[in-house]
Amino acid sequence: MSGLIPLAIGFTDPNNSLGTTQLLLRWVHFLAGITWIGLLYFFNLVNAPLMRTLPQDAKLKVFPGLMSRAMGWFRWSAVVTVFMGFAYWNIIVAADAHNARLHAIPAAAKPTVISFVIIWTLAFLVEFVVLMQPVDALKSGPVLGIIIAIVLCGAAYVWLSLNSHAWESSRLQAIGVGGGIGWFMMLNVWGVIWRIQKRVIRWTRESAQSGKPMPNESVKLSQQALVVSRINFVLSFPLLLLMAAASHYPFVID
C-alpha cells in the first residue's frame, strides 16, 4: 500500500506523465465499473426474476454456463474497478497534501489511505460474522440491510472523523466514503457471493449430468447470495452519488 503513495509525487513533470496516468486510471476505472455495476443490475433486475420462472430442467441447463461466464466478468471487473479507483484516489490524497505544502507528503498521506483499508475491511468482517451466525433471522433481507446500513454509516463517520484535517479536500473525503462502499461491495462479491455461487454452479452442473436432485443447502445458500447481491445493488446508489459529488458538488464540508 505504501508503494502507491510515491506514484503520486511527480507534480513538476514537464511531460505531464502524471496527468496521463490519472486519465488512464480513470478510463479503466470507468470501463470496469460499467461492466461490474451493469452485471450487478442484470443479476438483480433481469436474471433472478427470470430464473424463478424457468422450469427446473431448463434452469439446470442454462444456469451453469450463464453464471460461470457472468460471474467471471463480474468478480474481476469488481477488482479492476476498485483498485484502479484506489490508485487514482492515492494521487488525489498526495496532491491535497502537496497543495497544503505539507513537508512530509507520504507521511501525511499514509494514515488517510491505511485507515481507509482498515475501516472498510472491518465493516465487511462485521457483516461476514453476522452471516456466519446460526440465527436465520439475522440473514433476512430487511434485518441484514439494517445491520449493514448501521455498520456502513458508522464506518463513514469514523473514517471522516479521522480524516477531516484542513488539507483534505471535499473530493478526497467524498471518494473516501464512496470508494469505501465500493471496497465493501467488492469484498461482498468475493467473500460471499462468489463463494456461494461457485458451489451452486458446481451442484447445478452435476445435477444436470447425473439427474440427481440439488443438495438441500443449495436453496438456503442461493437465497443468502441473492440477499447480499441485493444489498450491493442498493449500495450502488450512494456509491455513484458520492463519486459524482466528488467532482461536481462539495458534498462533504472541508
Topology (elements, then pairings):
Elements: H1 17-53, H2 56-99, H3 105-132, H4 141-162, H5 170-210, H6 217-248
Helix pairs in contact: 1-2, 1-6, 2-3, 2-5, 3-4, 3-5, 4-5, 5-6
Structure, explained:
With 254 residues, this protein is mainly α. It has one domain (2-248). 80% of the residues lie in helices and 0% in strands. It has helices at residues 17-53, 56-99, 105-132, 141-162, 170-210, 217-248. Helix 1 (17-53) packs antiparallel against helix 2, helix 2 (56-99) packs antiparallel against helix 5 (170-210) and helix 4 runs antiparallel to helix 5. The radius of gyration is 21 Å and the shape is elongated. Residues 1-14 have low confidence and may be disordered.
